[in-house]
Target: 4-hydroxy-3-methylbut-2-enyl diphosphate reductase
Amino acid sequence: MTLPPLTLYLAAPRGFCAGVDRAIKIVEMALEKWGAPVFVRHEIVHNKFVVDGLRDKGAVFVETLDECPDDRPVIFSAHGVPKAVPAAAAKRQMVYVDATCPLVSKVHIEAQRHADNGLQMVMIGHAGHPETVGTMGQLPDGEVLLVETVADVANVTPRDAERLAFVTQTTLSVDDTIDIVTALKQRFPAIIGPHKEDICYATTNRQEAVKAMAPKCDAMLVVGAPNSSNSKRLVEVGTKAGCGYSQLVQRAADIDWRALEGITSMGITAGASAPEVLINEVIDAFKDRYDVTVEMVETAIENVEFKVPRVLRETA
Ligand code: 0JX
Ligand code: SF4
Model:
């Protein structure tokens, strides 16, 4: 049987970032050091395959610290936690390891520094997302004003328009965030913030690669989870960059083959929490149905690595 030809564009960078790599290592090393069960507050990263794999090794995933016993270690997810969470763990004399990505912790420190300087904070992020909850939770309840869209900027009511600063979630759309920051600066010319925003290198690079790849593709798939902010942004970037069909899939079984009928070019990328094994599974599914020629669309080379916390390095 002759298979139809398909050019399969593979975005680079794609998949795991340094913060995800570190967070997963933290859970694995904690299991080695302390044995099972090790509790993890929230999905360590937003990927069912990763979470299921760690659960098989003895990790127990919970949403709140209240669900953890005092006498077992607990790990905080890569997305970060409000200050009240480590404080509560310390009060209960629990062993805890913080797997918050260092690039998220940097934003936490920024928010605290602005508050120490007497500035009121605006957070650009998605309501209810654990990273936004964690960053806003660096300051007392009600202190941080949340902005999700350009339209929200009109409703910001600061205590003093001259004493404002902003921080952002690390996994937002770069282009949408530029628009929100521009609107904030127009309304509050004195607002202080980072050079551009707090979107991390991995989010930026994955979006750039999709922008280069999407116009070449009849269709595009992003391997990632429905609760993964950075993965969902890649789907949107693909559509905006001119790809008529841009979809999120968790793994090969989710591919809607009927929707792909007649395509001759396909783009594949993956969010920062999607493991390479699932990307390969998706590529293999195409190889089963098409005569595939793989072409890389590489827009950046990444060499970022983060160390695991010392408490785990000591036993290694
Ligand atoms: O939903 P997010 O993109 O923030 O998280 P995910 O998919 O777990 O990605 C890795 C963790 C990112 C933290 O910034
Ligand atoms: Fe860190 Fe960025 Fe990865 Fe989030 S997406 S874990 S901020 S490197």
Summary: Residues 256 and 294 are 20 Å apart (CA to CA).
